[in-house]
Amino acid sequence: MELPDLTRRRILQGAGLGAGALLLDPWLPAWAQPVSAGLQTDSLPTLSGEDIRLRVARDTLMVDGKPARMISINGTVPAPLLRLKQGQKLRLTVENTLDEDTSLHWHGLIVPFQMDGVPGVSFPGIKAGSTFTYEFPIEQAGTYWYHSHSGFQEWMGQYGPIVIDPAGADPAPYDRDHVILLSDHSFTHPARILRNLKVEPGYYNFQRQTLAGMLAGKDQRLPDRAAWGRMRMDPTDISDVTGVVLNYLVNGHGPKTNWTALFAPGERVRLRFINGSAMTAFNVRIPGLKMSVVAADGQDVRPVAVDEFQFSPGETYDVIVTPGEDRAFTIVGETVDRSGMALATLAPRAGMRAPVPVRRKRPVLTMKDMGMDMPGHDMSGMSMRDGTLAPQVKLGPGVDMINPMPMDRTGDPGIGLDAAYVGPDHKVLVYKDLIALEPNPDLRAAEREIEVHLTGAMDRYMWSMDGKTMSEAHDPIPMRAGERVRVTLINDTMMAHPIHLHGHFFELVTGHGAHSPRKHTVNVLPGGKVSWDVTAIGGDWAFHCHMFLHMLMGMMRVVQVRPVPGEAA
Amino acid sequence: MKAANLGLAAALLVSAGPAFAQTADPHAGHDMHGMVHGDTPSAPAAPPAPTDDEPTGTDQPPGSAEPPPAVHDNPAARYWDPAAMAAAAEAEMHPPAPVYTKLIVDAAELRIREGQDGYRWEGEFWAGNVDRFVIKTRGEGTRGEGLENGEVQALYAKALDPWWNLQVGVRQDIGPHPRRSWATIGLDGRARYQFDVQAALFLSDKGQLAARLEGSYDLRITQRLVFQPRAELELAAQDMPAERIGAGLSSAELDLRLRYDVRRELSPYIGVNWTWSAGKTADYARADGRSTAERSVIAGVRFWF
Known about the structure:
Chain A is mostly beta strands.
């Protein structure tokens, strides 16, 4: 992109007109316009090439017809799609017009650590009013995204998709592809949301169990309610921040705008789902269509046919759908707590709509989510906070539970998606379904294992690892460059935590040996644990929960891998 | 078979180095069972070639190598301005402690009863994060007669665990009675079964010892309609004639209120309150011509910022 800014913008507008005529939202790039013919169309502008300029600015943009204060890149939210080619070089010049520092992190990209974009960990940040140049080669292919790692900026709109075409043939060929970037915009400032949660942790939950519900036979029966009350836990606390304050967007559009992805009947359409939200896990389905999952976190997997999948902030899935009929389908991103939906339409022509399903019954957590699931055993005497089970955890006011019996839940479909909620014939993706298409690059056994406890206190809205926030824990997690390490994440809370390691892919330990699925973000269900093996790459790498506020509250560490490249061992 | 396995495990331990060092512990020895199933590894120095029989990749159990030491060397400073990097690292790793504040008026109510109606308030302000500074105030009075009793407390609240706070500070009475100053220590928090509990001891500047115990519960009828019983007991260690309070249980109070959360921050309520004087305190009340039991219909508002 060596064109002057003005010229480029005019090109973007011209291309947009071709795609959607009067339905255009002029503040959005064409791929995210209310109607998209797909990313392949020549007329659709993306930022590509080896030299890309991004301009970060405060902006007032429309969300579902209402003006919203956001942080845009090149005038749009989501930020421009970076369409790249595996093997190319890339120089990204980022201009910060904000009155505060900013940063951009390339989520899922394997980059030299000093280009990873985390202020204070891998670089100093991009000062207000200054320009910073990132430069790195594009080693991989797949669907990724980028976002700010400073302040509340990511939540306020500073995120965008990345699609990297493979150097060779795509193992999952398609006729057309669309980016489906889900996010959770709030008209309330994120700092205010955090404050509300700090002073009243259930502030945004209007789906609690009630007496009226009990009398109507809903939710838990009295003994179960008493058992949860005894633990001082709320089994309806599924999402901290809910549809009460969030607007769920597809490519920047609310449900009223009905963003539409076009297809021609019979085509293989690749949908690149990115969960770019701050605090929301989504259940994704397209009623009437089977989805064939072909990539997870940008990495190719053996195709798995599913009706639905749940994914958390930071995760991506590529699916292929083959709609044969000349009709519209609704792409549904129902939030995990069922408090709202992100909606879009997949249709052969603009202006069509398919029925929107009603929101399903809100799930209620079970004892399995508390790490207490032993049929036939009396769990009543079991301690919910037995420090001897996790000696490295500092048992302070910020740790309200130690998982008494962490379970491997990689065979579970996620909260509220088991057969009791969705029926027996509805196939929901589980991590164990994922099998890497290619053999893993490093087949060595892990030389050692690290346990990391994901800890928190619901009533105080505190989040940490091993009972300490990042600033309380002065030491990073050390690894040797080239070392193969097993990391086991144990969830000691009753909420799910999508844990992201920067700059690496790790292989999930789900029984698939040399074909373990490679991910950069893995969701650890409540009551559960997840193990993965990773080959450490030299550098300082952020390692954190991708629930925005959980990270901000301290569920974060630096993984320190030595030596860094160019340094003697 | 077991012995043979152990022998193989030992051989592997010697030949394959640290990756198999875990065979020294009995659990890992168990894991080896699958590993050596059938055939002998051919090239001991190289990682075992993946076959259908041998676990490979992530199917292999981890070893027990020692972790490297953590260092504080800030390698990013080699690529970027070291001063800027140091400042950014300081901001990231040691951000300023956040201070949250909340002002809540839990009760601002009228008490409609036989004779002169009354009023009551109870509220607190806190600032901090895990540990907090707290200002509490409460009091009640009769319309036309003014304040009967009231107090302000200034406390430091130290979080003891996820649910309980230790509160230490001072209390100043502001009623018409002798305006005592007190030192106080108490517990404030959430008990099992989700009861909100406050318990405090008070020691006055005249050496008087008193205590207060308060508990309440939120029973959610609908998402916004909440039935909230609240009980309170006041105790004294000695007769305090000037305050018209006797030793032992001096008074008990029960509130049943129904509040409606218009929004989280604003909840009008109605309810009933019973207040009883007990023991010597009741004697004082009778001697003063006051009733020893009182029932009021209450109407008020709970709000917070």
